[in-house]
Amino acid sequence: MKRIRILTLALMASLPFSAASAHQWCWCVNQENTYGWQLMTPDERREHQARLIRFTEYDACIEYLESHRSKIDEKAGKAGIKVPAVTNNPCDAMKTQGILK
User: Fold this and answer.
1) Band of the pLDDT at 4, cuts 50, 70, 90?
2) 51 in a domain, yes or no?
């Protein structure tokens, strides 16, 4: 029983470190870094982030991002809105972090 308690405490103590290191590998979408944020529903934002973090290949990520931006441009045109440019690229960021090949 004492051994189980010690193992449980050790695992609990390591959780914050696991969460912190996992977060550094996550591309978190927000209004500052996501093209068309204001035209996306909360569900679309979550799906966009989920799709981005599932990629393992740079080319597939770029292909998706181009498709996403095309859809946003179409939505913006219909709504008569000019979408602010985003200067960063999540695919480039994930490639730099070693997530994408």
Assistant:
1) low
2) yes
Domain-embedded: residue 22: no
Domain extent for 74 = 28-96
Q: Name 68's Cβ contacts closer than 8 Å, sequence gap at least 6.
A: 35, 36, 48
Q: How many domains does the chain have?
A: 1
In a domain, 88, yes or no: yes
CA dist 58 and 67 (Å) reads 14
CA-CA distance, 82 to 77, in Å (whole number)? 8
Give the model confidence (pLDDT) of 52-94 as tens digits: 889 999 999 999 999 999 999 999 999 999 988 877 888 998 8
User: H-helix or E-strand containing 66?
Assistant: helix 58-79
- pTM of the predicted model as reported, rounded to 2 decimal places: 0.69
